[in-house]
């Protein structure tokens, strides 16, 4: 049994509960909970699973309470609301309400005085999803600027041309010059794809929505499809908006496999429908930016919807040099490296990602502390400067996280599918439109 099976059972139980089929709902809740309990036993960090189990145990207890209080079970037709039963005064002794409860809990609609049902429980659920999106997914003011991105000058120029400039001068970017509605950032991990998306949102003064595969498929069990629908509805309302999808390959991988679950297919279909909706209205100021470390896993239908596919490679030598010196300066760490030693360090870090270089600098910064031994004091000024030898030792502990074979695969995929940006660094260099 898998988490996907439990998700399906909980979705079906929810539909049964809202339709008044309480026996079926209780049976499915219990089967889904049993799967979660089995998964908890074999999961290294089962905190999220345990919260889900607690939540759905509460749901199952609530169904039992409804069965006891209701004289008979009267299923209602699809689209109608089921009147709320009288609540029992005794409450089940359950753990504290889990974070998922505000999404998955659906109180039954109460009838109005004239006998007509109140607004549907689905509407109430939508309000809960909106509240969660506004509290957990929206970042209205990303504290990142393009100046925090070291290197990638051609990429920054291309994104400025595709995103920022059309927002500054919309009259010039119509017809064939209309900006793309969906952009894919791909490449090895640790090179700033998320940082780039946040910087673009900050430059364009856009509301930034950040969602990942784990958010849709784990944190909100059984709610992924509805969460996607509500996410795009809220993004339309808060234009200009940027919807950033991290780990997009985990959500929108190739369809049709025999092991693919129905819930996964529905989630992909919902995403594709929303992609098409964004592209169909040229006046919408809504942009989708997706990031992936596995572009080859994406479904072809998804790839067609990304008008631009930008490769975010490992840092070039100049960028590695700037990143190392910037990290040391930003954190007020003294060093004694000469220009020749710094050049040699740049050569030795060929193939390192941005995050690899950050870890290397952290390791090098620890060596002066280790050498002080028992002489460590509270005074920062007493810590010796970082030397080239410290970096040489650190290179024994910190290695490139991406293999040469993987980098070659990224290059091949970029040649076949990526958007060319050759020459953009020299275009309009004398103007004030450059982004960096």
UniProtKB/TrEMBL annotation:
<dbReference type="InterPro" id="IPR041569">
    <property type="entry name" value="AAA_lid_3"/>
</dbReference>
<protein>
    <recommendedName>
        <fullName>microtubule-severing ATPase</fullName>
        <ecNumber>5.6.1.1</ecNumber>
    </recommendedName>
</protein>
<feature type="compositionally biased region" description="Polar residues">
    <location>
        <begin position="117"/>
        <end position="126"/>
    </location>
</feature>
<dbReference type="InterPro" id="IPR003959">
    <property type="entry name" value="ATPase_AAA_core"/>
</dbReference>
<dbReference type="Pfam" id="PF17862">
    <property type="entry name" value="AAA_lid_3"/>
</dbReference>
<dbReference type="InterPro" id="IPR003593">
    <property type="entry name" value="AAA+_ATPase"/>
</dbReference>
<comment type="similarity">
    <text>Belongs to the AAA ATPase family.</text>
</comment>
<dbReference type="InterPro" id="IPR027417">
    <property type="entry name" value="P-loop_NTPase"/>
</dbReference>
<keyword id="KW-0547">Nucleotide-binding</keyword>
<feature type="compositionally biased region" description="Low complexity">
    <location>
        <begin position="91"/>
        <end position="112"/>
    </location>
</feature>
<keyword id="KW-0496">Mitochondrion</keyword>
<feature type="region of interest" description="Disordered">
    <location>
        <begin position="61"/>
        <end position="127"/>
    </location>
</feature>
<keyword id="KW-0175">Coiled coil</keyword>
<feature type="domain" description="AAA+ ATPase">
    <location>
        <begin position="179"/>
        <end position="316"/>
    </location>
</feature>
<dbReference type="GO" id="GO:0005874">
    <property type="term" value="C:microtubule"/>
</dbReference>
<dbReference type="InterPro" id="IPR003960">
    <property type="entry name" value="ATPase_AAA_CS"/>
</dbReference>
<dbReference type="GO" id="GO:0005524">
    <property type="term" value="F:ATP binding"/>
</dbReference>
<dbReference type="GO" id="GO:0016887">
    <property type="term" value="F:ATP hydrolysis activity"/>
</dbReference>
<dbReference type="InterPro" id="IPR036181">
    <property type="entry name" value="MIT_dom_sf"/>
</dbReference>
<keyword id="KW-0413">Isomerase</keyword>
<keyword id="KW-0067">ATP-binding</keyword>
<dbReference type="Pfam" id="PF00004">
    <property type="entry name" value="AAA"/>
</dbReference>
<dbReference type="InterPro" id="IPR050304">
    <property type="entry name" value="MT-severing_AAA_ATPase"/>
</dbReference>
<keyword id="KW-0493">Microtubule</keyword>
<dbReference type="GO" id="GO:0008568">
    <property type="term" value="F:microtubule severing ATPase activity"/>
</dbReference>
